[in-house]
Amino acid sequence: MLVGATIVVGMRAEDGELTSKHQPLLVLSKITEILDAFSLSRPSMTLGEIHQATGLPTSTVQRLVSNLVAQEFLDRSGDQIRIGVKMAFWAATATKGLDVLAVVTPVLKEIRDATGETASFFRVEQGYRVCVAIAETEHALRRNMYVGKIVPLPAGSAGRVLLAWNPDLTEQVLAGPIEPMTEGTVTDTAVLRELIHQARADGYAITAGEREDSASGLAAPVFDSSADVLGALAISGPTLRMPREQCEKWVDLLVGSAEQVTRTLGGRYPS
């Protein structure tokens, strides 16, 4: 954050010595408020919307946005303003070589601590979804999940999310027969296609009893810098503790966590 930034102001005394004092550069606080107003769910705004989001005076917003556009920190197209390409270049430099699991693991622990349920991160590997990171629940009754576990893509919330933003993989999955894992597994390809489309429209997926009987899952996507789906954050547990209404209460938490990981990794949402 830039809020605490300071500048050193040099003052030459009559005796020729240089003295200095620190003064807060308040304009940086205002610039930070403007930049922080943008998010993956709100990538572009008008001046009026920036004013509403920040609470800064209209004249201040107009002046700072004009200067930020001139310096390419922001881009303007008509009345729409968004983060500039120069900022994206800096972000790419900052995230180069960043370990995905180093970013994901603490977020999983935060989700686990907030919900009390197991939080996992899945990626696609050779036509399956694989658990690559996990923060396990402390409940004795838990789903059978561990790092390295391989699960068919069609069953469960994480698989649905991974398919929702990967059309080519979706077509491959829907082209072949879908083997049921439980009585609740969706094996009708027409129905599954609609559910995949719905997950993309919603930005998340909730399932129950598809991979394991009496078990529920909630998943949201994480994206890379090319706007391709990188993986899926998921919360899982017994349906007894995770009925649909409880899953719906955790949607904002999970989607917000997935957005946090995406932003930290320099990712962006598909347009």
UniProtKB/TrEMBL annotation:
<dbReference type="InterPro" id="IPR005471">
    <property type="entry name" value="Tscrpt_reg_IclR_N"/>
</dbReference>
<dbReference type="GO" id="GO:0003700">
    <property type="term" value="F:DNA-binding transcription factor activity"/>
</dbReference>
<dbReference type="Pfam" id="PF09339">
    <property type="entry name" value="HTH_IclR"/>
</dbReference>
<dbReference type="InterPro" id="IPR050707">
    <property type="entry name" value="HTH_MetabolicPath_Reg"/>
</dbReference>
<dbReference type="InterPro" id="IPR036388">
    <property type="entry name" value="WH-like_DNA-bd_sf"/>
</dbReference>
<dbReference type="InterPro" id="IPR029016">
    <property type="entry name" value="GAF-like_dom_sf"/>
</dbReference>
<dbReference type="InterPro" id="IPR036390">
    <property type="entry name" value="WH_DNA-bd_sf"/>
</dbReference>
<dbReference type="Pfam" id="PF01614">
    <property type="entry name" value="IclR_C"/>
</dbReference>
<feature type="domain" description="IclR-ED">
    <location>
        <begin position="86"/>
        <end position="267"/>
    </location>
</feature>
<keyword id="KW-0805">Transcription regulation</keyword>
<dbReference type="GO" id="GO:0045892">
    <property type="term" value="P:negative regulation of DNA-templated transcription"/>
</dbReference>
<dbReference type="GO" id="GO:0003677">
    <property type="term" value="F:DNA binding"/>
</dbReference>
<protein>
    <submittedName>
        <fullName>DNA-binding transcriptional regulator, IclR family</fullName>
    </submittedName>
</protein>
<feature type="domain" description="HTH iclR-type">
    <location>
        <begin position="25"/>
        <end position="85"/>
    </location>
</feature>
<dbReference type="InterPro" id="IPR014757">
    <property type="entry name" value="Tscrpt_reg_IclR_C"/>
</dbReference>
<keyword id="KW-0238">DNA-binding</keyword>
<keyword id="KW-0804">Transcription</keyword>
